[in-house]
Amino acid sequence: MNVPIKVFILLTLIPFKGFSQDFVPNKIQVAILGTFHLGETSDYRDGGMDSPLSRKRQREIRDIVKKLSEFKPDQIFVENIPESQELWDDVYTNYLKGVMPSNRTILENEIFQIAIRVAALNPGTDGVTCINFEHDKINANDATLKKWEAFSEELISRRPDYDNFFKQNLLASKVFNEFIAEHESWMKLPLKEHLIKMNEEESLRKLQYFNVLGWMDNNTAGLGAEFTTRDYYRNLKIIQNMYSKLKNTDKRILIIYGAAHAKIFRDILESHPVFEIVDISKILK
What's the CA gap between 14 and 20, in Å, rounded? Predict the structure, then answer.
């Protein structure tokens, strides 16, 4: 097919504005590690793991860190809001100096236990990058987003808590209990094997179903699709935050996040022409 030279030149000069003002020419490999929270959590049910600071768990975490570092990520993206970036920059700088966090919440967090330690073995990453999004952090100066914020607040005020949701949706309750039983059985495994199990396709589907999609089954409170939309919106904003931090030199990136986000992230990124998803189980094994 003959393409006019002027048109061809125009196409090659169009910047990939979603990432930066410069064109991103190469594929970026993406590894997504879905986790449960090792320390403090606001989740409906915590991971239930014994202390990540025990000798046994530290040995297992070192194994995971070693495997992830061999992927040689150029950037590591984590579940904390951009407003906390300075805090994690300080944690990383201190860790490089041999200073451990004095705050136990930070010390036990998977961002420190895994992400910071992987970054330290790949100094080109320059630490971790916070990309989380919370609805109450919307820029209220934008008129359109103000309307979304008001809508979001109205939605959350009408959404039942998970106890009541599971009473209303027996299928979601069944899938949730199946997942919890599996999760508890994985607790007997080394942490690496536990995370491999959690990141299997079937596990991620279950997490996405009862966390995000289940609201739609019985049109919960008459707003089932809207509740699901709110959850999808959060994940889209997280990925948008990640796009804004990408560099043209990035060849491999690692995302360490709560496992309930992992399938949505993968669905978004594997449909994008720049990204190539790398199976996290192959990295960990």
Answer: 12
